[in-house]
Amino acid sequence: MNTAVAVAAVVFAFGYAVVNAFGAWAVVRRRSAFGAAFFIAAVLLTVGGVAVGYGLPGAVPLVTAGALMASLTSWRNARLVLRRVVPWRHALRAAAGTVAIALTVLATAGR
């Protein structure tokens, strides 16, 4: 395991989880289902980050599920609750999810 890549994967997954926890806090009173979805994405990313840090198997599926759920929930929240989709914001979120997944794959390669 490449330690520098693993640290980057953990930090990125945790950072992305913080963004989703903020999303959960921001929408929970308006639409509790969206708040729960953001929170579940944050939990998946956090547990995936811990799995990377400890070298446990299953980190890639956890981070992938968290990143996909975060992107889809954000887009649906913008479309259904806010009624305004800003494409570059969702492209940026999808890119962040892709980076999180790529770092996790690189960190866990060869185990």
Question: What this model shows, in words?
Answer:
This protein is mainly alpha-helical and 111 residues long. It has one domain. Helices cover 85% and strands 0% of the residues. The chain has 4 helices and no strands. The protein has helices spanning 3-27, 32-54, 59-82, 87-108. Helix 1 runs parallel beside helix 3 (59-82), helix 1 (3-27) packs antiparallel against helix 4 (87-108) and helix 2 runs antiparallel to helix 3. It is elongated and about 45 Å long. The N and C termini lie close together (7 Å).
Short précis:
With 111 residues, the protein is mainly α. It has helices at residues 3-27, 32-54, 59-82, 87-108. The protein has one domain.
Number of domains: 1
Element-level helix/strand string: HHHH
Number of DSSP strand runs = 0
Uncertain stretches:
none
Work out the helicity level: over 70%
CA-to-CA gap between the ends? 7 Å
- Please tell me how large the radius of gyration is: 14 Å
Shape: elongated
Largest sheet: none
- The helix-and-strand class reads mainly alpha
Number of H- or I-type helical stretches = 4
Beta percentage is under 5%
- The average pLDDT score comes to 92
Topology:
Layout: H1 3-27, H2 32-54, H3 59-82, H4 87-108
Which characteristics define this entry?
4 helices; 111 residues; mainly alpha
